[in-house]
Structures are given as structure tokens and as C-alpha cells.
Amino acid sequence: MKIFLPFKKELNPYLEEIIAFSDNSFNYSSYDEYDGSYDIVNIHWPEALFQWKEPTESELKTLEEQMILWKKGSLLVYTKHDYQRNKGTTVNFSKLFELVEKYTDVFIHLGQFSKDLYSRRYPKAIHEIVNHPLYKNHFEIHDKIKARKQLGINENATVIIVPGTIRTYQERDLILNAFKDLKLPGKVLICTNVHSEIRFDFPGRVKLKRVFDVKNYLVDKFRSKHQPPKYLFTYGMVPRKELELKMSAADLVIIPRINTLNSGLVFLGLTYDKITVGPACGNIREQIIELGYPLFDPKSISSLKKAIYKGLEMKNEGKQSHPEILKKYESENVAREMDRVFKNILNR
């Protein structure tokens, strides 16, 4: 079976974990390089069709024509990762998501919450669930003590990591305020991509910049307040090797999301066998509950604090998720399920 992926290969290894064990053939290419030999066109992130740039009205029209062409010879499958663009939507980004959803034959969801939500919106489409895979084939796990030594972290410290990008000030403030209130000796917070910019502008800032740049001042002030040994922050994409060390050094993982449908960080935490604290939103809620890990209300600092304390208590007691639960997230099993779904929808 041939599957057309109408976008460039992404840095996120989600798809590669599945492709490595699939019996099917996958091809990455530009959305306008489709030919009729493909059985399935599989979209994952609509923005990736335009290399993450906002499409013009003309480009949206061309894409719609292309989708009509796809559906003449292939099934259009949309793996639903996000409600909308994670970095904030625009009129044309919203139109892009609506266009993809309108022409989708089969939605693949990463959880029951998503399936229920979009089944109501698109009752004529087929809706299936295929789990998110672990990242065991793409991330190396290091000895915790050795990783801490390389990072300059005390081996007896309580280390909390927030991997991925902190996308909004609400996410940043939630994490920082909860961490500051924790009564833990030798606590360390690792954030791998955090905002340090000001959250507002004001008339006259550009003119004032000639004498005194307020933005740079506030950025420098934020960064100077959050320094080692208590804070290990980076402010851009982290090289994979560095992320591997930081994940290995951690005691607890926090997923810093306020309102999102899915997060691969759940499965990054599982890959490193870490207790993972997650928000009660989207598919994340049901995944964290099934794993037996602490949930928190993403609008409550006190709720996050309680979840962190509970997670550390579980870690100290040596509690982990049941191996049988983790099996369904193994990449080989996820690929087998994806192959089964693809085969079944083509035979309907």
C-alpha cells in the first residue's frame, strides 16, 4: 500500500517511529507532486503543507483543487494532532484547517476525547483511534547520575523538567509560579525552550529604543533572574543530545499546556520512564489517567503544585505505569494498528 505524505519530513520523529515498523510504503513530497498511484493521502499538520507559513487565498484555492484531485484516486486521511495552529491562528490558517477537515474521508485520532468531538462535527466521515508511539528508537537514555554530572546538577537535587516549547505566557507563568512555591530543598527546574520576551508593547517604544530599549532590558532581567544552579533554561530549539541528557537527569516531567488536544511530551516522558504530570485537557487527560499519573487543572497553580508533590511521592515509592498499558504505545504495536486501519478503510 502506498501512502502520500504531502509535506517535508519533520524534525518530530512521531511518524518515523511508525514508518520504521509499517508494512506500507510512505513518501514525503510537496502537496502538488501527487500522482494517482497512491492509495492514501495522509495529512498530519495542515500548516506543514505550506512549510508552516500562512497560505494566501490563492494557495488555499489551489490546495482545494488538489484535494478534489486526490479524492478521485485516493482516500484522504487526516491524523488530528491539533485543534488549530498551536502558535495562534489567523483567518487563513483557520480556513486551512477547515478545508482539510471538510475534505477528509477518515480522521485518525490519538484519543477518545478527540474521536467523540470530531465525530459529532463530521458524522459522515470515518473516525478511528491509533495511539501515539513512544520515541524509543530516536532518543538515547543516559545514566541519571552521569547526566547530572555533565549538566552540573547536584546528584541529590530534585530535578523537574518542562520539555518542548513553552508557547504562551500563561504556560510560562503557571510553571514558574508553581515551582517557586514548592517547598523542596535543592530543587532544579529545567525548561528547554522558554519565552523571555515582554508580553505587551506600548506607543513610543520604538522612539524610546534609540535611548533605552525596554524590551531588551526586560529580557535581560528575566534571564538574569533564572540562572543555574536552580534554573537551567534555554531560549530556542535544543539539540537532541542535550535534550537526551536533560531528560535522563530529571525526576519528574511536567507537560506545560493550558488548552491543547494532544502532546507528544506524554510519550517523551514515558520513553524515559519518568513520572509525568499532565493537564486535564484534550486527549492528555485520558492518557494521564490511564497511566495512573497525576493530573492538574491547567488554570490553577495550587492544582499543579499538588500534582508535582504527588508525582514526586510516586517516584520516591518507585511507582510506574503497568507494563501492559505501555505495550500499546510501543512503536511496533502502533504501526501494526495503523496498518490495520489503513487496510480496513480501503476494503470498505
Q: What would your notes on this structure say?
A:
The protein is α/β, with parallel strands linked by helices. The chain folds into two domains: 2-133 and 330-346, Rossmann fold (3-Layer(aba) Sandwich), CATH 3.40.50.2000; 144-326, Glycogen Phosphorylase B (Rossmann fold), CATH 3.40.50.2000. It has helices spanning 14-19, 57-73, 91-103, 112-121, 144-151, 169-181, 205-209, 214-225, 240-249, 265-271, 282-291, 301-316, 323-327, 331-346, and strands spanning 2-5, 25-28, 40-43, 75-79, 106-109, 126-129, 158-162, 187-191, 231-233, 252-254, 275-279, 295-296.
- Total count of strands: 12
Helix content: 40-55%
- In terms of DSSP E residues, the strand content is 5-15%
What is the name of the CATH architecture of the largest domain? 3-Layer(aba) Sandwich
What topology does this entry show?
Layout: E1 2-5, H1 14-19, E2 25-28, E3 40-43, H2 57-73, E4 75-79, H3 91-103, E5 106-109, H4 112-121, E6 126-129, H5 144-151, E7 158-162, H6 169-181, E8 187-191, H7 205-209, H8 214-225, E9 231-233, H9 240-249, E10 252-254, H10 265-271, E11 275-279, H11 282-291, E12 295-296, H12 301-316, H13 323-327, H14 331-346
Parallel strand pairs: 1-2, 1-3, 3-4, 4-5, 5-6, 7-8, 7-10, 8-9, 10-11, 11-12
Briefly say what this structure is.
This protein has 348 residues and is α/β, with parallel strands linked by helices. Helix content is 43%, strand content 14%.
Which structural traits does this protein have?
six-stranded parallel sheet; Rossmann fold; globular; 14% strand; 12 strands; 2 domains; alpha/beta; 348 residues
